Every structure is written in structure tokens, then in C-alpha cells.
Amino acid sequence: MSTVGIDNTLRDKSRELVQRHYQELEDNARGKRKVVYLFTTGLIVELFRAFDFSVVYPEINAIHSSRQHRSVQLISDSELLGYAPNICSYVKCDLGLLAGPSKGQAKFGKIPPPDLIVVNQCGCSTYIKWGHALREKFHCPVKVIDIPFIHDDCPTGFDHEYVRRQIEDLIPVCEEISGVRFDPDRLKEILELTSDTIDLWMKMQELGKLKPSPFDAFFEGVSYMAPLTMWRGTVEARDFYKLADNIIRDRIKSNYTPYGRENFRLLFEGSPPWPSFSEFRGMFKAWSAVGVASTYLYVSVAPGDLEFSPEKPLDYLASLATQSYYNWNLQKRWNHIETLIKDYEVDAIIIHSVRSCRPSSVGQLDMRNYFARDKGIPSLFLDSDVADPRFFSSAQVLNRIDTFFEALSQRKKINERIL
Amino acid sequence: MPISALTEILKAGADDPTFPEVTVWKKSHPGGKAIGCLPIYTPAEMIHAAGMLPVHLSGAMGRLKLDNADAYLQDFVCSVAQSTLELYLDGFLENIDAVIFPSICEVLRGVSGIWKRIDPDKPIIYLNLPQNYNSGSASNYMISELGRLKTELEKISGSAITDDALFKSFELFNKRAELLNKLDLYRSDYPGKFKASEFYILRLAGRAIPVEEHIELLQEALSAVEETQPRKRPIARIVLFGAFCERPPIAMIEAMEEERIALVYDDLFPGMHWSKDPLPLAGDPLKILADHYLKSNLHTPVVNHPESSIGDAIMNIVRARNADGLLLATAKSCHPMLHDLHDIFATSEKQGIPYVKIEFEEDQQVFESIIVQIEAIIEARERMPFAGTDRKEGSGDQK
Ligand code: SF4
Ligand code: SF4
Predict the structure, then answer these.
(1) Which among A99, A88, A43 has a CA at the least distance from the CA of A327?
(2) CA distance A76 to A13
(3) In terms of CB atoms within 10 Å, which end of chain A has fewer, N or C?
(4) Where in the sequence is the domain holding A272, given as residue range(s)?
(5) Over 80: is that where the pLDDT of A416 sits?
(6) Cα separation of B399 and B231, whole Å?
(7) Are B286 and B143 in contact (CB under 8 A)?
(8) Looking at the domain assignment, is residue A1 inside a domain?
(9) What residue ranges in A160-319 does DSSP mark as E strands?
């Protein structure tokens, strides 16, 4: 097994697309195209691309602020504006950036004000609060797409119809604000690109099944998500994952594995602690523990077969939104994770519980009970935050990770001796 | 009997975590089923029409030590979720045959999954309540959800829910809502005669008894209120907002009233009288229920009207009730409420309405810090002349 040197082509390409996104937003700040703010779970950005909107993703801005170690300041700016300390830290990062002294100017770019905010309320009702808070600041229309929770195996026909109709209701709103007429063929073309992009993205993840895995689905995978969200519905996004496929397949030929060897195969559940991302990564790298699967990579997709294709654009959009992974009930998610554990030959699960995010964290303790106690899969439960580094206690996290891997090593040794 | 004597009797059982009312009901209704309703809104009329007993669940009001729920929920999760789960894990809800989880927030949504896993044989029904109030399709969607709920309830009860039965239930629930609305106004108009804590106890007393019995009790309470001699006149009229889902301890409300604070409005137990308008008694019953929910215009942190501000809605209540100020009593860790604080603070400040914010937990026993904060509003009241109390209090309360 070998490492053929860190290949940064993909990471650099992803960064370039992020920079281009923000550059285009800055250009648009001069008022060329109308701006819509969208949220990432149950994402239906394609509809807005069909009206040539420029898209701002408040959550992604919060991620970039966090990775660039600006979140503590922004969180404190938003608290000075009167936002409560215990609410979602993404919201506070974003409001600190847009409504605080930064006035929308981030290191990564200047965020233009919205002409429209669409709250695709999918799995997270904080979005609606976020949308309201942004409206207080920008006084623009806020439209809601209410996406019913999948409480059973799949959504009901009524769930689908309700979402589809709400999307349809947005068409005249978009036409009026953007001044662009709705063209279903244009939407179909955009959705074809999305469909190809998502297929490639899911196929890329499948490569984690190989032993050793040619990439780290968590620490590397999250860096490749930008094209999927920010550029979805474009040639750039599709081509990025074609490139990813080529590069990762080349790695397979040279028996590449991210940390030189693969001691443990992990499944990661939950979002990363963004401000401490590199440090967190180092803690796993030290044990040559590779993330071969990650549920976070599903954040804006609907894994599994969808009933509709881009041929029926509004139905396809409605299925993408309704069947989004983050809209699944706990048991459905766990059944899926159980399949991943088998298919990816996972040794252990790492659950990162995010204190300020109830949608993702409620249920995760029981998830540990389910997998560790009922299914016998070693599971490590870590608790910090997505954007607020004050909840990330390095010493404590390191200690827990080391103790976990020590125990896991022992277990592996014993298992290897049993015939 | 004066109202204080009546509510004193009811108080002992109002927060009993063993739900003795359900046991009593089941004894007199062999084979009868009890359906748990989580906050804040469930169409309890439908459960009643199915011949079953709706039981409003919302935590343990501090009457239970949390020993088991922490294995399932992190410490940053609100206490209503923690203690309702604890009630279930500790076996206090064995008499409850199924539970309805309305889609109010992600915490309860997560709890619904945990609940199902704890005992897969115990039915739960997840009810998606539309959040897009402005959408033309919300009503149709809600009708479909109510249709699903009806089918599930029929499966549990073993018999069909007829339109006739639904309209009979509507009539009874209308009667109860009318009485609750009357009592609500009474405590605002005559706070020296009828306290918010007494009104709270009367609502709690109806959490798990048949609506018919609750109506009788409320009628008795209304006569008792009318007969009650005015007590000392309160020195400040306050709107209490923020506890919509949790049930704060009765002692907390009483402690405020000890300081001669009149809570002239509160959002405790909103699901029990959801709308000021009665349910129409003819037409398509599911459509009626859907409209009742969607058009209630009730603002709570889990009912988000996209075009209007919760701050404005509360300030309108403060003015309508001639209140001196606003007391924001937020349950610790309730995200939907915490998110709304900014808008509420900003609107209060813009409109010059004094407010204080307190945080409570359902097992809280000491309220001194809360009282100290409330005194700020009383001081503001003493500095400023106040129109509201004078107008209404002339009719009976003592100075
Ligand atoms: S609460 Fe969680 S899912 Fe919702 S916006 Fe915040 S981080 Fe995202
Ligand atoms: S108190 Fe708040 S967070 Fe808790 S269940 Fe109720 S609405 Fe949800």
C-alpha cells in the first residue's frame, strides 16, 4: 500500500469554483442579476437558475466564515444585535456577517443583499426563522416551501403534490422579480445536469467501498461538496465530478490510500466541526483511520431511486426536495446506515453531535444505543459544534478519540486471532 | 364555592405524572383507548369522535426525576422532550394506547423516532401540520393529513369515525372553547377576582378527562368566579408569553401573583382553545378542521406566518389587554422560541412596551430571580400612569 503524494488537483479545483462563485456574487452586487438566498437541504436551486438568479447560500457562507476562523467574532456580533446565545451557530455567523459591522463583507467575498429569500423548509425549521431574521434586515419577500417530514418509508402522494404545487406557485414570483419568463425546456436542461451531477457524486462515494479506500469520504469528501451545492445544475458541477472520478480511479491503480495505510474504516455521521476541521482531521489521521462513508455527503441530495426524472421537471424538483436525506425519519436513516456498514465494511461509527443544531443532533444518542448496544458496532459519540469553536475542547476530543482507537485496536487484534 | 377553593382541590391532581384520570376513565370504559397528544395542536375532536380519550401530554411539570431520558437525549434538549420521554420510559404512560406527534419542531420529530424504537408495537401517528399558511395548497394538504389521521385512529378504535360523530364532538369542543375564552377574558377584566394560576389549573384539569366533564368543571368555575369576592387589586398587568409548549410549574405562576402581578394573558396550553371562532357545524368536517388550524391567526414560535411578525402579534395582545408590559418566559433550550426573541425585543423597544425575559425549567422550585426581574416592570408601572387597570378594575377589585 502506498501514498503517491497528496494530489491536490481536486481540492484546488473545488476551491477555484468557490472563489468563482463569490467573485460572480461580487460582480452581481452591481445589480446585473437578481439575487435569491437559498438553504441547502432539500435544495431546488435549479428552479432559480432557470430565471438566471444569482444564488447566495447563507449556510455555506457560515461554513466559510467558520473555516476561516471568523465565526467567534461573527457570533458575538450577532449576539450584540440581540440574537440569543443558544440558537443555531450558522444563523448567528450569517447574521453577524450580514447585519453586523461586517456589512456583508467577508474574507471570501462581498455578499449582495437578496431580492428574494426562499426558505425550503426541509428537515430544519430554523430556516424559516433565519429567513424572517434576514427579512428584518433586507425587507425583501420571503417565500416558504414547506416540505413534509417523511415519517414512514417514503413520502405520501399528498406530500409530493403539496411540495410540487408550492414550487409551481413560485414560478410567477420568480418571473416577476427576475423579469425572465419561465421556460420548462431550460429547466429540463438544468435538471439533466443536476441528475448527471448527483449520479457522479453518488458513484464517487461508492469508491469508498474499495479496500483500501482511495479517498476519505469525510475529511476529503466535504471539501468536494461545493460544486454539488453552489454549482448544481451547471456544466461546471458535472465536469468537476467527472474529473473527480478520473482522479480517484487513477489513485486506485496506484493503490493510494489517504494516510499511507488504512488501519480503520470509519463511517461518519453528522457535520464536521468546521473551525477545528484540520485539527479534527489530524486526530483521525494519526490512527490511519479513514472515513470510507459519510452521511454528511447527503446533505443536499436524495439518495435512492426517485420516481421522477428531469423529463417532468417540477415533479423531479419536488422529489429532490421531499426525499432529501435530512428529511428522513431516524429508523429510515439507520436502516440506510446499516447497509452502508455492510457494504463499506465499516469498523466503527463516529457520531459528531452538533450542540446548536437540533435537527441533526436529536436522535444521535439513541443512534449510538442502536448501533453500539443493539448491533455491536463500535461507536464514538463526540459533541461540539459546527461553527462555534468554544464548544470544541481539543484535549477532551483527542483523549476520547485516542481511547476509542486503543480499544478498537485491541478488539481488532483479538478478532484477528480468533479462527 | 369560591374559585380559589375549587382550584385548590384540582391543583393536587393537575400535574400528577401518573395520570390517574386515564385509569378512572378506562375503568368506566372497558376496552376504551386513550390517545396521547403532544403539544401544541392536535385535532382532539377526532379522537373524541372515535370514542377515545384525548390525553394532552407535555412533560412532567417537575414531578419526575429524570433518570433514563438522558440516555436518549442530550442535555441541551428542552425539558418537555426530556420529561415526556421519561414518563414513557418509566412506565407512566402504559395506559396510553397511541401517541400523536404533531410536526412542531425537530426535537419532537426526533423524539417520535426514539419513541417508536423503544416499543415498535405501540402505535405513534406523526401528523404533518402545514407551515406554509399562505399557500393555496396548504388546506388540501392538511385535509389529506387529517384523512390519514382519521384512518389511523379508526384502526386503533376499531370503528369508523362518522361525520355525525365529528359534528357532535365539534359542538362539545366549541362549548369548551367558548368557556375557556370567557374565563380568559374574565381573568383579564377582573384579575383581582380570578387569577391566571387558577385559570392555568382549570386548563390542566382538562388534560385527560372527557371534554363533557371538563365543560361541567369550567361551568362550575365560571359561576364560582362570579361569586368570588374581589381580592387585592394587582399592581401591574402583564402579558406572559413564551411557554406555549412547556408547562411551567403552577408555583411559578403563583409566585408572580404573590407579587400582585396580574397575568392578563398567557400562551399556556394553546392547543386547548386554538381559535376564537367556533368550528362550523355543517360541511366537510375535515375541511373545517383544516381551516380551523390554518386560519387561527394564533402566533406561537412554532406557527410561523411568513408575512407577519411575531413581535407585532404580541404587542397587539399587550395593547388589547391593556397590559403594562410583557414577560417573556422562555423554556430553557426551546430553539423556536429563542429564535423569535430578537424580533420580539426589537418590536417591544420600537413600540415602547416594557419587557423582561426570564428562563425557566419545569422542575424549578425557586423563583426569586424571576420575581426580581418582574419588579423592573412594576417599577416602570409605578412611574407611569396606567389606563387599563383603572378602566376595568372599577368593577369589583379592591384597591
Ligand atoms: S439548525 Fe442545523 S440544519 Fe438547521 S440551519 Fe442550523 S445547522 Fe443547519
Ligand atoms: S419546548 Fe420548544 S424545542 Fe421543546 S418540544 Fe416544545 S417547541 Fe420543541
Answers:
(1) A43
(2) 33
(3) C
(4) 9-418
(5) no
(6) 9
(7) yes
(8) no
(9) 264-269, 289-294
- ipTM over 0.90? The verdict is yes
Residue A3 lies inside a defined structural domain of this protein = no
The model's pLDDT over B42-85, given as tens digits with 9 standing for 90+, comes to 999 999 999 999 999 999 888 899 999 999 999 999 999 999 99
Q: Do you find a cis peptide bond into A212, omega within 30 degrees of 0?
A: yes
CA B106–ligand 1 middle distance (angstroms): 10
Check CB contact of A335 with chain B, cutoff 8 Å. no
Whether A126 lines ligand 1, by a CB cut-off of 6 Å, is yes
pLDDT tens digit sequence for B150-195: 999 999 999 999 999 999 999 999 999 999 999 999 999 999 899 9
Smallest CA-to-CA distance from B187 within B172, B201, B197 is with B197
Distance CA A144, CA B196 (A): 36
Please give the grid coordinates belonging to residue B190: 377582573
Residues 6+ apart with CB under 8 A from B18: B92
* Number of domains making up chain A: 1
User: Cell numbers 371562532 label which residue?
Assistant: B277
Distance from the Cα of B130 to chain A's closest Cα (Å) equals: 7
- List of residues 6+ apart from A131 with CB closer than 8 A: A37, A117, A118, A119, A142, A144, B306
For helices B335-351 and B310-320, the axis angle rounded to 10 degrees is: 60
Q: Which residues of B touch A87 (CB under 8 A)?
A: 335, 338-339
What's the rounded Cα separation, in Å, for the pair A126 and A403? 35
Q: Domain limits of chain B?
A: 1-399
Is the overall model pTM greater than 0.90, yes or no?
A: yes
